[in-house]
């Protein structure tokens, strides 16, 4: 029988915080019910930011997920499982008002938050891990529903604010893009200066270091080719970034982020090249080629490819059409991980689990 006079040893608060910030999101949500102090701690903005940082740099990708956008449904599967397990299970993700929506697509991802665009022309900000979501207010201007749209979701560190950027063309000025910015802090949309130049941007944007990046195709034949349009969320300024001249001659390009730097995959005739942005100069000197992926068969050559993850060990997680492929640059080998319960999907994104709330 234990002696009631003997005090049970307690861990220092800083040790408890260090342990908790390294746990997955789902147990942390349950731990908020342990006591009032734990609820206040886990819900605090400082704790959420520390936990977010640990999740972002997770070397084994245990908190990272691939999100699969199907016809009216959304699934996710573990990046760690794809990379290291013999097979991976794809799981359904549910969100509020799902039964009222026929189709939905992912138009943004940042810090564990996902932005959805529904067939009702609604935008929903959603944390798929905590299952908390928020329907954004409508635009305060009329838009051409048959026109061109592009979206992006990012974080402005200077104001500690998550922002959704919506770009669309007007009926009168096809050479200008109307831009609306939503602030989670104020829960309002605000129209800013139009983006000029006749660029058609892909959707969704890639977010890195306070900026949104879109692959952009110029509608003027005299200036045909790809470049990158960037939008600084703090300064609300646009910039056109030139790709390497070699990349411009490719079939298509796709963006991604590796350790805070933007990279672009460009499909060529016999291979796909991945270039990473240095951020130090203009033109070709701003880019470094990090890997070349050869086409060993017609499947690799003729399927539409995207580099989802670059790994430090030289591997690249690719999506080729609807098939996941892992390329290992060390021995130039390919492997094809098995994904069960995958179903049909038409787009793929990526996120990592976080406690960030979409309701501010």
TrEMBL record:
Segments forming domain F-box: 5-50
Top-level taxon of the source organism: Eukaryota
Signal peptide residue numbers: none
InterPro entries to which the protein is assigned, alphabetical: F-box-assoc_dom_typ1, F-box-assoc_interact_dom, F-box-like_dom_sf, F-box_dom, Gal_Oxase/kelch_b-propeller, SCF_F-box_component
NCBIfam families: F_box_assoc_1
UniProt protein name: F-box domain-containing protein
């Amino acid at each position: 029988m234990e002696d009631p006079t003997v005090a049970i040893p307690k861990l220092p608060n800083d040790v408890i915080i260090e342990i908790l910030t390294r746990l997955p999101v789902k147990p942390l949500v349950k731990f908020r019910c342990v006591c009032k102090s734990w609820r206040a701690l886990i819900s605090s903005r400082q704790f959420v930011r520390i936990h977010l940082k640990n999740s972002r740099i997770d070397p084994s990708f245990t908190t990272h997920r691939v999100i699969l956008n199907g016809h009216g449904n959304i699934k996710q599967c573990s990046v760690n499982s794809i990379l290291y397990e013999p097979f991976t299970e794809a799981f359904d993700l549910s969100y509020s008002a799902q039964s009222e929506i026929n189709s939905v697509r992912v138009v943004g991802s940042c810090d564990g938050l996902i932005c959805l665009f529904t067939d009702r022309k609604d935008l929903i900000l959603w944390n798929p891990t905590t299952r908390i979501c928020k329907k954004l207010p409508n635009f305060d201007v009329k838009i051409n529903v048959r026109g061109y749209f592009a979206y992006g979701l990012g974080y402005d560190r200077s104001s500690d604010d998550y922002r959704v950027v919506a770009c669309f063309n007007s009926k009168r000025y096809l050479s200008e893009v109307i831009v609306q910015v939503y602030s989670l802090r104020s829960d309002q949309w605000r129209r800013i200066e139009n983006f000029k130049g006749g660029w058609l941007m892909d959707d969704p944007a890639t977010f890195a270091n306070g900026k949104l990046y879109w692959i952009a195709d110029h509608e003027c034949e005299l200036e045909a080719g790809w470049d990158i349009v960037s939008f600084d969320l703090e300064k609300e300024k646009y910039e056109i970034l030139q790709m390497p001249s070699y990349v411009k001659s490719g079939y298509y390009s796709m963006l991604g982020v590796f350790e805070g730097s933007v990279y672009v995959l460009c499909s060529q005739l016999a291979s796909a090249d991945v270039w990473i942005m240095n951020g130090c100069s203009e033109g070709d000197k701003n880019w470094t080629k990090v890997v070349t992926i050869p086409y060993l068969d017609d499947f690799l050559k003729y399927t539409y490819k995207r580099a989802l993850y670059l790994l430090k060990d030289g591997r690249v997680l690719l999506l080729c059409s609807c098939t996941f492929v892992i390329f290992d640059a060390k021995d130039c080998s390919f492997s094809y991980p098995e994904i069960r319960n995958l179903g049909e999907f038409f787009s793929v994104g990526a996120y990592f689990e976080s406690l960030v709330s979409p309701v501010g």
